[in-house]
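Replying to the earlier thread about multi-chain prediction with a worked example.

Input:
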Amino acid sequence: MKNTLYAAAAVASNSFRESVRNRFFTLFAVFAFTSIYASVLAGVMAVDQEGRVLADMGLALIELTALAYALFSASSSLLKEAETKTIYLVFSRPVPRWSYLAGKLAGVLLTSAFMLAVMGLMHLLLLSFRGFGVPPFYAWALGGSFLKLAVITSFAFFVSLFSTSPVSTLVISGILWTLGHFVPETRFLADQAGGLKGTALNAAVWLIPNLQLFNARDVSGSACVLGAPAFVSAAAWVGGSYLAALWLLRRKEF
Amino acid sequence: MEKRAGLFLLLAALLAWGAGSSAAFRGYRTQFPPPGEIKQAGGGAPADMFALAFGARRLFADLWFVRLMQYYGTRELSDDEEQEELESHGKPGHHCHHGADFGKGRYPDFLPMSLHILQLDPGFTAACLYSAASLAFNLERPDEAEAVLNYGLRYSPKEWKYLSVLAAIGYTKAKDPNAVASAIAPMLKDPDCPVMLKQLAAFLNKRAGNYAAAAAIYADILVTTKDPAYLRNAARELEKLKGRTSKR
Amino acid sequence: MTGPTVSFRGVEKTYRRPQLLGAVYHTAVKELSFEIPAGEVTGLLGLNGAGKTTIMKLITGLLFPTAGSVEIFGLPPTSRAAKGSVGFLPELPYFSPQESPGAVLAYYGRLSGLGGPDLAAGVEGALRRTGLEPHAGKRISEFSKGMLQRLGLAQALLHKPRLLVLDEPVSGLDPLAIHDIRGLLAALNADGCTIFLSSHSISEVEKLCSRVLIMVRGSLARTVTRAEWEAAPGGLEAIFVETVK
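Result:
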């Protein structure tokens, strides 16, 4: 067991190193920094609400950028290793497939956390430069973004194991991301509707992860504090995607 | 054996996913109005879809607030008034406003735009107070101001600042300026307090002879707002009040 | 008496390629039975598409047989014990260009279960044996094709495997490098390592191997020993050409 965890840690560490060295990581980071600093213009237009606009815009950009890179990594990671035959060197060794998958997922999540932290720091520096303090909900907002990324990234890994290309994985995961924010509205419509329509909508509520649960950056006051259901749901959805991905990976041939 | 292991994995995956959905179903209560309540103002349907799709209601509410301020910041004249201004400008007896109307005008979309902001983000207290104060004390449309505040109270029933402004509107209708000043006094140091309420409080204090209190509020306006019109007015009033407080 | 290192019994491997309506099946290896005894250097020859890489992947657990059984040291190829004893060099291995050879080997060493001083010693030994020590400070992006091939061999040797499975081990190497690698493989074999290699270079196979399996369209057409090809006019090449025609 110790050896397999050691192998998972090695895969995670290697995956993280490759991610942050990838030139696309730099591109995404530069884009995020530029956008965050450009948001100063919107902040100025908001006059007395500049602090709020800067905070909201920055958090949204940070999350979208980290999401884009996480999906890019997750959708191409396994495929790239199979195409370059790197995976031969891994699976010809005594590395259990569950350990490898856990390591890969951990590596991408570590990269996401790193990206969120770095961009968050840059954002806070901007807010400080403009004379604003740390928004009260900031840590929860970033934490919620990370949980969202974890759910979607693990789902993307699962999809990448049966989809035909990284682009289709990106598209499918992006669609789930969007649908995940509509779950509360879907639930409202399901309560109103009846019959087949209501059943279909209820099924959607259960199948699509409710990403609004983690959307601390979008609510105010004490409601932005992530409760136990958020962490439990995130762990369960990540676990579910991981197990489904493992079900596909365990007998996959290379 | 292998097939059974695979089936077990798949079942475990589905169970885990279901557990996540169950926890979310039980644990999540939406803070937002249902989608049917989001009424359009100024062709913003695609933006609203993006707001919902990206889970960025707050951000889009901010952008709509910027639009509202830009809309309100546009000086509004009817065609007749504009013609009269042009014909009489520079001639003896012409009183040029030079933009010093402090928010007077029709602005027919002000209420729908204000409500739209709250339909996206009912927690946007500053926007609600700004809209209500502008409608009540600048545009002199107290009924619309009450509509905005009542909508805000639906989703933030414990927001005491809304009740304070409602009270101030009521006292305004009753023509009791001292009561108006008392009603809004607790809000003045709050970061969500819109600058026009501060200006109103300063004006009422000045009218009641409380020059020191008025000066303190104008000084606070100078520090807390970035709106150039209010900054100019506060600086001008402080100069006038310096003279009055030094004469005493 | 120890059993064979590699044992194939009635092995068949059919690939399934899904299409819009149904699937296409292609049998890469059929009714394949052979054994590789411990300590032998066995070669695998065949034209492109004969099934050589399929056999290599079946041994290393990257593919699963559709029928029959494969055993490595008497164990299934997917078992941890079997994999821990096998070193695999695929054709044209890829390594991350920004890494150093030491970092790459350290990663694969960890995956093989090495750690601490054993890992450092394994990495240093693998670099030395494959002649990569002078290039340890370079990045992979600066490596020539031959150096990449040596690095591929180095990662296969890290954990001191008892069986080496090498797919085109001298591909892209200059004559001097080929000579070095040949010497290395001979030394490893002298230490008791079983070697199974495939190559398009008949002359290399002749120099290294004591036995050769010749594959034709997925079937084992012929097994030739050193004594046989040394006695045959035209040598191994003539036997190979005659077998595949």
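Residues 2-249 of chain A form one domain.

Feel free to reuse this layout for your own posts.
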